[in-house]
Every structure is written in C-alpha cells, then in structure tokens.
C-alpha cells in the first residue's frame, strides 16, 4: 500500500483545460473521495493517477516515486470502472485471474489467490459462470475481485456504484467500506454523489471546473465549506445563503443584515462589499422572540424532522426543525441562527472569510 | 376478446411477407439450380428444348472439366483395350479418349491462394489500421479515412492500364503476389471502414482495464479487443473474399499463364471441343463452393455482424 502525492497536476485537452493545477496528498490506507459535478475534472484526475491519461504538467508520486509519465501497466495500481469492464469473453474465474496472468504468477498460485478473493467477496459459487449473465451487484464484486487479487499499491474507483440501482448501491457501499476497513488499501474513489462521499470517505477533495475547491475530512467540508460552491454542493437541502451588502472589521463578532444584528464566529480578516451569510438548515431555529423575521412559505414533513421554507428580505431560507415545532404557512416568525456554525462568504470570489470557526480548514 | 398488440404484425401482412420472401428465394436460387443441374447433364440434355427438369444425372461435365480429350476415329476407338477407371470409361462413352489433365485444377488453386491470401492480408492490415483510427489521435484522421475510401471510387477498368504498366515494370504481372497485393489494395478500404465501425463499438474500458492489469497496449489489443471484434472480422472477411473470389476485370487483364484465376478461365472451357455447357456448369458449381462453405461456416458471425450496433444491449 502506498501514499499518493499530487503536485500542481494539470491536464489540457487542446484548448480545454480539464484539471488546473491540483495539489493534494492521499495518505497510506486512506479512503479518498474525489467529489464534484460532471465535467469538474475528477475522473481526469483519477485517470492520470491510474496512468490512462498523461498529465500536461505536474507530478504524481506513488510511494515517493514520480510515476507521472509512466504507462498504466507499470504503476501497480488496480481500477474498478463504472461499467465494470469485465472481459466479456472470459468467465468469472478468468476475469479475476487475468491481472495475475500478466505478472507470470504460477498456475497453482493463481488458483489459490482467485479462490481466496472469491471467498472474501462471496462469489466462490459462480467462478465458472460467464460474466454476461451476472447481476449488477455480482459484476461489481467480480470487478472488485479483479482489483484486489493482485494486492496492488492502490485502488482507483470510477463511480463504481453509478451503474447499480438504488437498493444495490446501499449494500455495495457498505460492502466496499467494510472491505476497505479490512484491507486498509489506499483507495481513490470518484463520485458525483455528495452523500456517498460523506458516507464512505476518510477525506474528500471537492472539485469544480478543474479546480480543487476544498480538501479535508467530511466533517470539515460539511461544517466549514471553503467556498460558496462547496457550501451549495454538499448537504441536502443545501446551505442557505443570505445575500447582503455590508462591512465587518477583523475581530468583529457581528454582521448587520438590514437592521438586524447577527452574531457569528469572530472574523479573522476584514470583510466588505457584497457578502453572503451561510447557514445550514439544521442551524436555523424558529423562535418568535428572534429579531430576524421571516414568513413561512411551506413545510415538508419528513417524519422526525420537517423542512420549513421561509421568505426573508435576504432570500428564501430552509430550516430543518423537529416536526413537533408548530409551523403554519403564512405565519410570521423569528429565525434564530446558530452563531458558532455560521459562515461568511465574499459574493464575488466565492471564498469563505477566515473566522474563529474555520481557521484550520484546508483551502484548495 | 382477441389478443391485440401494437407491435405484432397482422396475419395478412405476415402471409404477404412470407410470400414475398419465398418468391425472392425462388428467383435468387433458380440460376443456381440451373447451373448445378446443367453440370450433371449430358451435352445433348443441356441444350434440349424444352429444358429437361428430370434427366439421368451424369458426371460427364466434371470429367470433361478436369481433362483434355481427343476424338479418334470409331475404328481406332474400337481397337483400344477396355477403359481403365471411371473417368476413362465416361470419356469413352462420349467417343473420346483422355489425353491429359486440364488446367482447371491449377486455376482453381490460384483462385484459392489469391482469394484467401488477399483476404487474410486485408484483414490483418485493416484491423490494425482500424484500431489505430478508432483509438489514437491520428493527424488528419478524417482526411486519411476519406482518402482510403476514395480508392474505391474509381472503376477497376479505369486504373487497369496504369496498373498493368506498373506491374510490368515491377515484374508483378501474372504473379500470385501481384494479384494478392492488388486485391488487398482494393479491399483494404472496405476492411478499414467496416472494422473501424466494429472497433468503435467496443468500449475503451476493456483495454484500459487490461492496461491497468499490467498488459501492454499490443497485448490488450490481441487478448481483449480482437476476441470482441471477431464478429466484425468474420463479416469483413466474407465481403473481402467475395470480391477477390469473383473479380474478373483485373484477372483477365493482368494474368494469363501462371497466376490466372478461375473466373477468366471458366469461359475458355466453352471453346474446347465444341460448346461443352455441362463442363462450364461443372466449373461454375465447383467455383461456387468455397465462398458458400466459408459463408456458411461464418454465418452466425455474419448475421450478428450485419446487425451489430443496431440495437443497444
């Protein structure tokens, strides 16, 4: 297993730049998520680590060795493709054995390893079946088997759950995570599903338009988004944005929205101009005594909680409240924003201002 | 209530379709039946009017096809010792004696060597080129592909004289190699275009998986792409073989003694000892066989190949 270091990685396809100078480190044994909307450069980044694309510039270090210009076959990594890419003219056993055959592993050894892997993945009863007739989940397991049989330095997974239906996805996500916890293999996993990334990843890189927006643990990224894009992309419903013009000096613990004073974590730098106050729905409480007022537009009942949509002078706000909180459409109520969990963004650059709360967060 | 389906054709249209297909089959097969039955007729039977549908079959045509004969005087014929072997006996029945083998066997082998040789070469070169066009960034790719296709636009007869002169200079006229190269040059455009379509349909992920599994690009091509392109390769091979096998214009102009193929040879049979239609028909029948067998052997691939990519799985 290995540590993977990415330095100023850049990829241009003609005039189009898919990845614009990414840098991050994947520690040994980490389950690492590359997250972003389609076209953000996450798959290109993964393919460069795997050796299927050569970077225009920058370095990829696997175990301290620069492999950026080496062909895939010499990098000793395994990959699970979105469409599985099982060799259709071979049966399950041959598919799993194929990477070992290329290394010239003796036959009895191949048989032993294939049997071992098949047992771990619970596909030992279907080794002689053709891959064509397998269900999505089983294909996924065979693809995983082909990846783990060789004991490579790292695993690349390109949306491996994307081709499965919702029910299977849950099961496979759990299996994948359990497999990782058992093998402690460095894994780089590409997904556009923020829930999947949060649920499975040790670390997440959020990418957008070829740029790394933020790099950190799921908690860091959820609680302290570094940019407006990350704040909007992570979480469902997304973070609420209250847009206003204002000024706040460094050291200030308050911003003024209209004529309401809103407390927030102490600012570490001055902020002025077009600003955005970000608050997650679960940090908005309804309280008649709160000075910041809004009118209830709609409520969505979700069992234990409900999503209350309110209109305020600074835009719509969604609040996640216990379903026992009384809320009726049309009523005027106060919104209490949980001060320690607020974020302040610059509306033009999208960057989050440094505050006492997000001081340690890694910016992309 | 009767079953009703939007997609199921009605009974009438099914009958109409069956009738049309039957009619088409009859029209297509009739000349074949005619040729094959003529090959088993005697000379007089073959030209009798009205044509005989029922007749006593004989292999006279085949004997005549493979031999050269003379027709001695009746007295001479009667003075000969009794015939040895079936062929001699059949020749004797027509009042002839066999003087030696004909050149048909040789010409037929020429056809086999040139036809299958050029098909193999077209497929090997075509597959490699198609793979490169399908997978790699080739400078001027579209122009090159169009150029390759454009070699097919001119009728053979238009380039026959330049090729004849060229081949004379190069010492390629009337050689097997020359004909193999020529038919390959004609077929390669078809092969590249057809095979590129087939290879385009094979997802790149398969090769990428093989590359990551530690195989080189060429190993990935051979072990992963080729088995999946088998369908396309089979149907392309049939098309190439059919062209090379049936080609007449170049063969008649560029070959005479050494490398002559069967198509220009068969008509010359007519001239040997009167109009020997059963022998011509026998030659045509034997000539039909290789392509027919080849097509039947590969027919599963051919059917899948022709509809390949039409329906997404």
Write the SSE topology:
The complex is a heterodimer of chains A (364) and B (313).
Chain A: E1 4-13, E2 16-26, E3 31-35, H1 42-50, E4 57-62, E5 65-66, E6 77-80, H2 92-102, H3 107-120, H4 136-148, E7 154-158, H5 166-183, E8 186-191, H6 194-200, E9 203-208, E10 211-216, H7 218-223, H8 228-233, E11 240-248, E12 254-257, E13 260-263, E14 271-279, E15 284-286, E16 293-301, E17 305-312, E18 315-322, E19 332-337, E20 343-346
Parallel strand pairs in A: 3-8, 3-9, 6-7, 7-8
Antiparallel strand pairs in A: 1-2, 1-4, 4-5, 9-10, 11-14, 12-13, 14-20, 15-19, 16-17, 16-19, 17-18
Helix pairs in contact in A: 2-3, 2-4
Chain B: H1 11-39, H2 43-47, H3 60-66, E1 67-70, H4 74-79, H5 85-93, E2 97-101, H6 104-135, H7 141-150, H8 156-170, H9 176-200, H10 204-212, H11 217-246, H12 249-254, H13 262-265, H14 277-297, H15 299-307
Antiparallel strand pairs in B: 1-2
Helix pairs in contact in B: 1-14, 3-14, 6-9, 6-11, 7-9, 9-11, 10-11, 11-15
How would you describe this protein?
The complex is a heterodimer of chains A (about 375) and B (about 325). By secondary structure, chain A is an alpha+beta fold. Chain A folds into 2 domains: about 5-225, 3-Layer(aba) Sandwich (Rossmann fold); about 235-345, OB fold (Dihydrolipoamide Acetyltransferase, E2P), CATH 2.40.50.140. Chain A contains 8 helices and 20 strands. A 6-stranded mixed beta sheet of chain A has the order 6-7-8-3-9-10, with helices on both faces. The longest helix of chain A has 18 residues, at about 165-185. The relative contact order of chain A is 0.12. The mean pLDDT of chain A is about 90. Chain B has about 325 residues and is mostly helical. Chain B folds into 2 domains: about 10-100, no CATH class; about 105-265 and about 285-305, Orthogonal Bundle (MetI-like fold), CATH 1.10.3720. Chain B contains 15 helices and 2 strands. A two-stranded antiparallel sheet of chain B has the order 1-2. Chain B starts with 10 loop residues before the first helix and ends in a 6-residue tail after the last helix. The interface between A and B is medium-sized, with 23 and 16 residues.
């Amino acid at each position: 297993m290995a540590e993977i270091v990415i330095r100023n990685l850049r990829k241009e396809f003609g005039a189009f730049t898919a990845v614009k100078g990414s840098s991050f480190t994947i520690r040994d044994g980490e389950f690492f998520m590359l997250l972003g909307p389609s076209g953000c450069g996450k798959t290109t980044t993964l393919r460069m680590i795997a050796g299927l694309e050569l970077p225009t510039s920058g370095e990829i270090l696997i175990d301290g060795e620069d492999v950026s210009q080496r062909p895939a076959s010499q990098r000793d990594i395994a990959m699970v493709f979105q469409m599985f890419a099982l060799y259709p003219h071979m049966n399950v056993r041959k598919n799993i054995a194929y990477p070992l055959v290329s290394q010239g592993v003796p036959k009895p050894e191949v048989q032993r390893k294939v049997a071992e892997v098949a047992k771990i993945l619970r596909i030992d009863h279907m080794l002689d079946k053709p891959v064509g007739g397998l269900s999505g989940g089983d294909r996924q397991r065979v693809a995983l088997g082909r990846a783990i049989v060789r004991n490579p330095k790292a695993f690349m997974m390109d949306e491996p759950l994307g081709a499965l239906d919702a029910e299977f996805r849950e099961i496979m996500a759990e299996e994948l995570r359990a497999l990782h916890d058992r093998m402690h293999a460095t894994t780089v996993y590409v997904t556009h599903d923020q829930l999947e990334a949060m649920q499975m990843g040790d670390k997440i890189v959020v990418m957008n338009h070829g740029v790394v927006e933020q790099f950190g643990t799921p908690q860091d990224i959820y609680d302290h988004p570094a940019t407006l894009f990350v704040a909007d992309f992570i979480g469902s419903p997304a973070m609420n944005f209250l847009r206003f013009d204002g000024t706040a000096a460094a050291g200030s613990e308050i911003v003024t929205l209209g004529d309401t004073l809103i407390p927030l974590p102490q600012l570490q730098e001055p902020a002025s101009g077009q600003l955005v106050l970000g608050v997650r729905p679960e940090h908005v409480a309804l309280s008649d005594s709160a000075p910041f007022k809004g009118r209830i537009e709609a409520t969505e009942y979700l069992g234990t909680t409900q999503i209350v949509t309110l209109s305020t002078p600074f835009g719509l706000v969604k609040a996640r409240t216990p379903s026992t909180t009384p809320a009726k459409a049309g009523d005027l109520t106060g919104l209490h924003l949980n001060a320690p969990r607020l974020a302040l963004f610059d509306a033009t650059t999208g960057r989050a201002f440094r505050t006492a709360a997000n001081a340690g967060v890694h910016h992309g | 209530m009767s079953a009703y389906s939007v997609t199921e054709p009605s009974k009438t249209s099914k009958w109409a379709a069956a009738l049309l297909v039957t009619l088409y089959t009859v029209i297509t097969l009739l000349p074949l039946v005619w040729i094959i039955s003529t090959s088993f007729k005697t000379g007089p039977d073959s030209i009798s009017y009205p044509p005989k549908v029922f007749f006593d079959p004989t292999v006279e045509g085949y004997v005549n096809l493979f031999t050269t004969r003379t027709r001695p005087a009746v007295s001479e014929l009667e003075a000969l010792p009794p015939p040895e072997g079936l062929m001699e006996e059949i020749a004797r029945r027509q009042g002839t004696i066999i003087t030696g083998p004909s050149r048909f066997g040789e010409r037929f082998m020429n056809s086999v060597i040139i036809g299958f040789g050029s098909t193999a070469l077209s497929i090997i070169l075509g597959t490699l080129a198609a793979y490169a066009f399908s997978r790699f960034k080739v400078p001027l790719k579209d122009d090159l592909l169009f150029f390759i296709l454009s070699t097919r636009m001119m009728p053979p007869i238009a380039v026959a004289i330049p090729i004849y002169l060229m081949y004379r200079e190069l010492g390629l006229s009337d050689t097997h190699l020359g004909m193999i190269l020529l038919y390959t040059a004609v077929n390669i455009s078809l092969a590249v275009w057809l095979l590129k379509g087939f290879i385009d349909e094979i997802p790149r992920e398969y090769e990428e998986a093989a590359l990551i599994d530690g195989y080189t690009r060429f190993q990935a091509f051979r072990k992963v792409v080729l088995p999946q392109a088998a369908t396309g390769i089979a149907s392309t091979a049939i098309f190439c073989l059919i062209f090379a096998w049936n080609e007449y214009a170049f063969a008649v102009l560029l070959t005479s003694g050494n490398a002559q193929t069967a198509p220009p040879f068969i008509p010359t049979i007519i001239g040997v000892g009167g109009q020997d239609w059963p022998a011509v028909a026998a030659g045509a029948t034997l000539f039909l066989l290789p392509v027919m067998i080849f097509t039947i052997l590969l027919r599963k691939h051919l059917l899948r190949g022709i509809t390949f990519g039409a329906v997404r799985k």
